[in-house]
Design a protein that fits this description.
Largest sheet: none
Oligomer: single chain
Number of strands: 0
Number of helices: 3
Order of helices and strands: HHH
Helix content: over 70%
Strand content: under 5%
Shape: globular
Length: about 70
């Protein structure tokens, strides 16, 4: 029987989503739930998620350069 819950590390979630909009965070949570329910994300969703996180990483790097960190 599948475990009905999964671990959720609030600090990791917060730092990983701090630059996302509320809409993006909601979609991210839905993807986490989908992955938990199905055990995987299909290839289309996986490509979309990877593209999105590359975009976020680029924005974070620019912000760090701007802040001189």
């Amino acid at each position: 029987m599948k475990d009905p819950a999964f671990l959720f590390y609030s600090q990791d979630f917060y730092t990983g989503t701090v630059f996302m909009t509320d809409e993006q965070v909601g979609k991210f949570i839905r993807l986490l739930c989908l992955q938990h329910q199905t055990g995987h994300l299909n290839e289309v969703v996986y490509k979309y998620v990877n593209k999105y996180f590359r975009f976020i990483c680029t924005r974070i790097k620019r912000l760090l350069v701007y802040l001189q960190l």
